[in-house]
Write a structure and sequence with these properties.
mainly beta
Length: 87
């Protein structure tokens, strides 16, 4: 079940509430009875397992040259003319 954050517009207290997506949003503060606003929060997202890499590429992302030998992928320094990061 998702966790939502609400903030009271009167006492400015912030609440975390575990609710179903189909549940109606909270309207009144349980502390002072003021109007509640739902906050947009950053979610906790973690990649776990052996197939994930911090840069989005596998450790063996090198390409083979004409001789069949593997070359390491170039680091992004903006030097590649075809690279979107170069512009």
């Amino acid at each position: 079940m998702p966790v939502y954050e609400y903030k009271c517009s009167s006492c400015e207290k912030v609440f975390e509430v575990q609710q179903k997506i189909s549940d109606p949003p909270l309207r009144n503060c349980s502390e002072c009875g003021g109007e509640m606003k739902k906050l947009v929060s950053a979610s906790a997202f973690h990649l776990k397992g052996g197939g994930w890499y911090a840069d989005g590429y596998s450790a063996d992302s090198g390409k083979k040259d004409k001789s069949g030998e593997s070359k390491p992928a170039p680091s992004c320094g903006g030097g590649c003319s075809g690279c979107p990061a170069a512009s």
